[in-house]
Design a protein that fits this description.
7 strands; 8 helices; seven-stranded antiparallel sheet; globular; Cyclic Phosphodiesterase, Chain: A; single chain; alpha+beta
Length: about 240
């Protein structure tokens, strides 16, 4: 069959639309002041000194990814990104800088080490506001992850909102590492990490949230491409 210029144009348009419409994971997160980097580096140094990173071939996330605190992570069609940016910018313009505090470290069943952040009313309100503004834009055909399916409550949250970690499931944290551990080493790894955590003399730190960011992420929720940064610009009323 001879392909005419008109047919070729149609094929190119369809290919372009199909490519552009591929869903992507987008994280709307908050940035804090640079002191968070010092805290995370101290934690990583303690694991390096203990030999845990070398023994289990663990790479700290800060080496390859931007430090961030997730507000709402879900999947969208790429065509929704301009609207996401506008809605996040509108929220940032009406939000004051917030103070947050860490309170400890915990190793999750997924082998993520988390620096836990105290949830406060202003932080929860910000997360809720972002989720409510963006959830109608999400891809409703997102496949529910295996780790979510085993928990009926998380499954219900994911079905409604595209994420199990919003509203009453909101669990603010910074990720320190995401370890890929062979099954035969899992028990020993968990034991050694948790034992090391008991030896860390943790001192709480305060941070200031300065902006809301938007980024494309990998399957682990780690930033691969920054889309936008929106400073919190509302000043307190006197």
């Amino acid at each position: 069959m001879r392909i005419t210029p008109n047919i070729l144009s149609i094929i190119l348009v369809l290919f372009t639309v199909s490519t552009y419409a591929q869903p992507v994971m987008v994280d709307v997160f908050v940035n804090v002041d640079d002191s968070i980097n010092h805290t995370i580096n101290e934690i990583n140094n303690s694991f390096e000194t203990a030999g845990i990173y070398q023994k289990y071939n663990v790479t700290p996330l800060i080496k390859n990814h931007k430090v961030h605190l997730t507000m709402y992570l879900t999947e969208y069609e790429e065509s929704k990104i301009p609207l996401i940016k506008q809605r996040v910018l509108d929220i940032a313009k009406t939000t004051q800088p917030l103070q947050i505090q860490d309170y400890g470290l915990s190793l999750k069943a997924s082998n993520f080490l988390m620096l836990e952040i105290k949830n406060t009313i202003p932080l929860q309100i910000l997360s809720d506001k972002i989720t409510a503004s963006l959830m109608e834009l999400r891809n409703n055909n997102t496949i529910i992850p295996t780790w979510v399916r085993s928990d009926p409550i998380k499954t219900n949250m994911f079905t409604q909102f595209g994420s199990p970690n919003v509203y009453e499931g909101f669990d603010p944290h910074f990720s320190i590492f995401a370890a890929k551990i062979p099954q035969e080493q899992q028990a020993m790894f968990s034991q050694q990490v948790n034992q090391h955590l008991t030896q860390i003399k943790f001192q709480p730190h305060n941070y200031q949230i300065t902006e809301i960011g938007i980024a494309v992420t990998d399957n682990d929720g780690q930033i691969t491409k920054l889309i936008a940064s929106c400073p919190l610009t509302q000043t307190s009323k006197k």
